[in-house]
Amino acid sequence: MTSLRELALAAAAPASLRAAIRIGLAEAIGEQAVPAVDLARRLGVNEEVLDRLLGNLRCYGVFDRTAAGIVHTDTSRLLREDHPQRLKNWVLWVTEPWTWQLWPDLEEAVRDGRGHFDERFGEEFFAYLHRNWKESTEVFNRSQTELSRITSTAIAEAFDLSGVKSIADIGGGRGYTLATLLEANPHLHGTLVDLPAAVAEPDPRLRPGGSLADRSQVLAGSCLEAIEVDADVYQFKSILEWDDEKTVLALENARRAGRPGAKVLVITNIVDGSPEIRYATGIDLLFLLNTNGRRHTLDGVTALVERAGLRLDGVTAVKPLLHVVEATIPG
Fold it and tell me: Using an 8 Å Cβ cutoff, are 109 and 115 in contact?
């Protein structure tokens, strides 16, 4: 009974995380304990309600209390802007105000098998996001960079690109992963392709005058319309999580853009066997509601690759949580 009651009120946890970030709680605590009264005064918030907020967060190992005051835990430090593995913006992204509007739609999605964002808001999710929720668009871009900081080095170490002259990072956001690959492979030329709002402020290394500017270009465009770059490798990292038709369309556009023998890499989290199954299944349902998408199973994503007319070469596990589906554009 207790666990079910706790589960039914679990929405308090993401709401508390979001409130903590928005008031700057993690940034206000350094390496030393801060008395709650000083912390409230520093943040300009109500001390009594702050204490109640911390009571909820402490249940999940986020912040702690000692005799001297409030202190960080390993988890709460991830909410700091200066943490090398921060998840501050990712937490904001999955708790944005629009998410609270969409979760009640889950019942209807279960009944008829699809999300209803387009019908409810009049256009597809990312178009509506860029048009109406500009602050949320910026949060999304920052959150994707955060995730790339965690995974990009592992991806660069996992693949031998010594025989590759050019790579296109499709839907690569601000280009953190592409820049990491270029730094690890001095012979490589890279092209970043994403929507105009995503590439408006690319990684400083890719901008004119940046350290990688002479080996890179930045193109605004949608992979659901056309991919207008010729490359040896087309990389789709953590973006092919729309509905199956859009995923196949993006892969088909890569097939049309590339020459025979060019490679297509689909880098994604897999639901089945995930060591973070609560995260994987939770984000899967959020994708359902915002883009009618999904977090793929291994069989599901490989089937989509083959359906797009690509020749499946294999699947490689890349730490910490990623799988890379490798395919070739046939002759």
Answer: yes
Of 314, 315, 316, 310, the residue nearest 328 (C-alpha):
310
The 10s digit of each residue's pLDDT in 249-264 is 999 999 999 999 999 9
Q: What is the pLDDT of residue 320?
A: 65
Average pLDDT for the chain: 95
* pLDDT over 70 (residue 241): yes
Burial 250-260 (b: 16+ CB within 10 A, else e): bbbbbbebbee
pLDDT beyond 80 at 319: no
3-state secondary structure the chain: CHHHHHHHCCCHHHHHHHHHHHHCHHHHCCCCCECHHHHHHHHCCCHHHHHHHHHHHHCCCCCEEECCEEECCHHHHCCCCCCCCCCHHHHHHHCCHHHHHHHHHHHHHHHHCCCCHHHHHCCCHHHHHHHHCHHHHHHHHHHHHHHHHHHHHHHHHHCCCCCCCEEEEECCCCCHHHHHHHHHCCCCEEEEEECHHHHCCCCHHHCCCCCCHHHEEEEECCCCCCCCCCCCEEEEECCCCCCHHHHHHHHHHHHHHCCCCCEEEEEEECCCCCCCHHHHHHHHHHHHHHHCCCCCCHHHHHHHHHHCCCEEEEEEEECCCEEEEEEECCC
Q: How far apart are CA 212 and CA 210, in angstroms?
A: 5
Region 7-24 average pLDDT? 97
Segment 119-147 mean pLDDT: 92
